[in-house]
Amino acid sequence: MSDVITKAQVITWLENCAALLETQKAYLTELDAAIGDGDHGLNMARGFGKVKEKLPSMADASIGSILNTSGMALISSVGGASGPLYGTFFMRASTAVQARQELEPMDLVKLMEQGIEGVVQRGRAEVGEKTMLDALIPALNALKSQLEAGAGLSDALDACVAAAEAGVRSTIPLVAKKGRASYLGERSVGHQDPGATSATLILGLLRDVVKGSGVS
Amino acid sequence: MIGIVLVSHSQKLAEGVRDLAAQMTQGQVSIAVAGGIDDEENPIGTDPIRVMNAISEVYSPDGVVILMDLGSALMSAETALDLLDPEWRPHLHLCAAPFAEGAVTAAVQARIGGSAESVMAAANGALLAKRQHLGIAEPPTAVVAAPPPTSAGQRLSLTIPNKLGIHARPAARIVSLAGQHAAQLTLRKGERSADGRNINEVMLLDMRQGDAVEFFADGAGATALLDSLAALANENFGDDDTAAPTSPSGQPSSPEKFVLAGVAAAQGIAIARVHLLSTHPPVIDSALKQPIEDEQIALVMAVNRVMNALQAELEKAKLRGDDTQADIFKAHLYILEDDRLHTTAKDAIARDQVSAAAAWWAEIEALAGRYRAAPNPILQGRAVDVLDVGRRVLAELIPGSARSLVLDEPCILAAEDLAPSETSMLDPQNVLAILTQQGGATSHTAIIARGMGIPAVVGLGGGFSSLKHGQRVVVDGGRGWVYTEPTDAQIAEFEAQIAAERAEREVLLTTVREDAHTSDGRRIEVAANVGGAADAPRLREMGAEGVGLFRTELLFMGRASAPTEEEQILAYGAVAQALEGRPIIIRTLDVGGDKAISYIKIPPEENPFLGYRGIRYWLGDRPLARAQIRAIYRTSAQHNIRVMFPMVGTLEELEAIHAFMREIRAELDAECTPYDPTMQVGIMIEVPSAVLCAPQLADKVDFFSIGTNDLTQYLMAADRGNARVTPLATPFQPALLTAIKQVVDAAHARGKWVGICGEMAGNPLLTRVLIGLGVDELSMSAPSIAEVKHIIRQTSSMDAQAFAREVLALPTAREVEAQLKSVSI
User: Collapsing DSSP states into helix, strand and coil, what is residue B674?
Assistant: First the structure.
């Protein structure tokens, strides 16, 4: 593999997201049922299903345009809070890469930074409140510090996903401060956050695609 | 006219609320709905695109007010605003008002041509009238003392005719009429007045049937408006009458001369000098000592520290089964969890350039003031909680600012008010009575004083200020009286009364340490349930003959990892030390169910009470189990220790436990580590299968301890915490008594003994029947011991057996309960 992410890889990644979220529907819904309204799996599968429908018409578009279209598809189809959140992530991310046809490693950092900034603004959340940010922010930090230290994209993504996974586990003892789960207060303790889980699954697929192990 | 958009997860809810609002405004306000999502199978959710379309439907430069139900509705609405023409943005208003009340109120205000601000304000105030009606209102800030009516205006005086008074619908009719006429309308009731175009002010005027109300109208349409209002009043304000509520009121009885009357909060008599506790308000330096952001961070951290401490205290109180304390800590947590409080204080730091302490205290005093002004006495009492928890945070911000309660000699403590946390720290040796200016019989101070046996008179009001530091007074807590200038004869009389009470208590106290036997000589061991070493020192003096249940959960909570073997040995040893050689039954960690421990990862379960808990978890976590059982064995080398395992339901589990213990003994033998190989091993009986298998299980243990709390809920399949089924989960259920009988018989047939360590054991109503069923040991929270021992000593075991047979023959819980109550002493 080379140290760039091609447009084809981005498309494969999004297709893989649709496929994986469909198979993980029950798992995410089960996590959400424990502390939320139990629709996260369903919502994510529906949202990325819509994204997948849009992809064939995007073969000639730029990466920015693909991400923007995906964001809009998520916003209009997810139904829960993850719609505006993931939608905003992708739409903001798209402004970081604009008309690119392939992404340098640091483009990926910028893309994530912008996307996460959008999620922070939309959700008014921060690390430690049992949200997807508990996975995304450590993941971004790991990716950035590995790349800055001279690591290759593949190794940096490994570290990024490992950090996201640790982040997901870190949500278990937390008290939810945002969203429906926050109504449970202390009773949300002991449960893994579904949003952080789906974010980690999505990052994992990006890593797999870049390393060439992801199948279309 | 302002347009309204209703955003809901449910299309049906959005449409229903729209219909409600339309009914109040005769369909004259533009209301658009954005409900649900485009998925027939799962239609619940919110869709920013639908919100966008709904806004477009009703948009005009006058503005649009958007109400949302919850959760993603907010984010979807915000996303929709981002997607719309930026020029519209200043005219779009997201409104945090409650969905149904807010929509109805907003529509009424929109219909009379209100601005966006007035529509938002009306919607945001929509809960006030509801809260006021339910007696949980904050002070009606919207309603102020009546301004002098305008001289030029016209006046209409009315007596409110309809039974329910001016509630939401009549108020909407009044506001609506006001909006249709070119006149300013002011309503006046007594000293208060309201703007006739503001629905919240009209409702908060709280006009009830029979109230005299004046309507002042000023302007070209004044006559027409008052005529319409008179007509509306003639139509009973459009109401079809049904019954209306009334409220009673009571006053304390009038005092004699030199007697202050307050609320009798806790019984008992005390004669001593008054120690007047200064209310010295904490000294707060409002000058900024560090950058604004640092002050803000200091505040957030102080609040967090107090919340963490409260959380830990709450867990401990729950484990002790101390509901009163737990409720106080919960109430304090609720207060701190209100984001508005910190946000306002944080904003004030920046706005007023003051220290975190000053901003926080101003906010706390304002909030306490609002509670004090509430019409409802229960809410007024919350002011104490607010100040209490507020002071705790303050003490974090200003070290040393907590007020000292250390008293050098026995006295009567008098304070304007005592914080609940202060009351619970009092030393009953030196505080002979408590007097407060504020508070009622249900205040925390009163409840805790009762629990600690300290006489208390609260709510002395104005009379309080006549108390002087050092003055000798007599307090009669039972009547709620304070004799400020007692005569010698009165003092002599009260002293005699105190002496008699003391003698009675001393008899009880000297016998409470003695072992309990029935009147015909059968030994019943009375032990205490404890959660940790902190509980131990007073146990012997309270009559505990041992510890029947040492809940080890507390040792494992509130920390980042499990306690080490050595830490556990220290904790177990400390309790054993305090019990002077009496047996201590240590229960291994019972995690799961409702007991969560942060570093113990039990995956989410649908049904945690039927899940991976107790021994089921423990046997699977070898490192944790090994450290605990080693600690227990090693403690047994020095002390009288027994071990007990929770949630055993099968013989296999018990065999697995024995195999594991054999392994550990082999380990200890190999290390030459001393332990007691004859340490008694028991199990809790709380899973119904264990009742049925009791004969087989009894062969493999030294004792059973029946955990009646869990056994009852498993036996009855009724959650103790679920109010709708709690009547099923009572200790009077014939099935439960039969289960206890079976377990006792099975154990005694094999020479094993049986204890009870649930709440039942400490319930004096049940003591006789439990003796009669053959139970050998009762373990309870320490304060119950004296009374239970007293009953044991008065009971003959033969009579108790006959009594138990009678009770067992009763077919229903109701009859069992009635029978026990009819013979209780």
Answer: coil
Expressed in percent and rounded to 5, the helix, strand and coil fractions of chain A are 75, 0, 25
Residues 6+ apart with CB under 8 A from B450: B265, B266, B267, B456
CA neighbor of B449 nearest in space, from B253, B317, B270: B270
* CA atoms of B584 and B682, how far apart (whole Å): 12
Tell me the CA end-to-end span of chain B in Å, nearest whole number: 73
Q: Does the interface ipTM go beyond 0.90? A: no
> Cα torsion at B282, B287, B290, B295 (round to 10°)?
50
What is the per-residue pLDDT across B560-607, written as a single tens digit (0 to 9) for each?
A: 789 999 999 999 999 999 998 999 999 999 987 766 677 888 887 888
| Spans of all domains in chain A | 5-210
- Asked if residues A32 and A194 have their Cβ atoms less than 8 Å apart, the reply is yes
* Contact flag A39-B45 (C-beta cutoff 8 Å): yes
Tokens in use for B760?
């039942």
Q: Is B253 on the interface with A (CB under 8 A)?
A: no
> What is the C-alpha end-to-end distance of chain A, expressed in Å?
16
Q: Which two tokens stand for residue B596?
A: 């969560």
Beta strands, E only, A23-66: none
Q: What is the pLDDT of residues B176-229, one digit of tens each?
A: 888 888 888 999 888 888 888 877 778 778 788 888 888 998 888 888 899 889
Q: Is the pTM of this model over 0.90?
A: no
- CA A94 – CA A66 distance, rounded (Å): 8
Contacts of B197 (CB under 8 A, 6+ apart): B112, B114, B175, B178, B179, B185
- For chain A, list the strands marked E by DSSP: 5-6, 102-103
Of B45, B79, B83, the CB nearest to A80: B45
Token pair of B458 as six digits: 């609260």
Helix (H) or strand (E) holding B808: helix B797-808
The CATH code of domain A5-210 reads 1.25.40.340
Token code pair at residue B305: 């520290």
- Residues B475, B476, B481, B485: what is their CA dihedral angle, to the nearest 10 degrees? -40
For residue B757, indicate whether it is catalytic.
yes
Q: Are B626 and B664 in contact (CB under 8 A)?
A: yes
From chain A, pick out residues whose CB is under 8 angstroms from the CB of B595: none
Tell me the C-alpha to C-alpha distance, in Å, between residue A169 and each of A173, A194, A197, B319.
8, 11, 9, 28
Chain B nearest-CA distance from A34, in A, is: 7
Quickly count: other Cβ atoms within 10 Å of residue B624's Cβ: 20
> Between the CA of residue B267 and those of B262, B301, B759, B814, what are the distances in Å?
13, 41, 26, 32
In the annotation, is B411 catalytic?
no
Q: How confident is the model at residue B55 (pLDDT cuts 50, 70, 90)?
A: very high
Q: Say which of B45, B70, B337 has its CB closest to residue A79.
A: B45
Q: Which amino acid is at B510?
A: T
Contact list, A78 vs chain B (CB under 8 Å): 45
Whether the CB-CB separation of A32 and A41 falls below 8 Å is answered with yes
In angstroms, the CA B394 to CA B282 distance is 8
Contacts of A84 in chain B (CB under 8 A): 48, 72, 75-76, 78-79
Instruction: Find out whether B665 and B627 touch, Cβ atoms under 8 Å.
Output: no
**Domains detected in chain B:** 3-124 (3.40.50.510), 144-238 (3.30.1340.10), 259-280+405-485 (3.50.30.10), 292-397 (1.10.274.10), 525-823 (3.20.20.60)
The whole-angstrom separation of Cα B415 and Cα B437 is 7
Residues in chain A, total? 216
The token pair at B574 is 């400390």
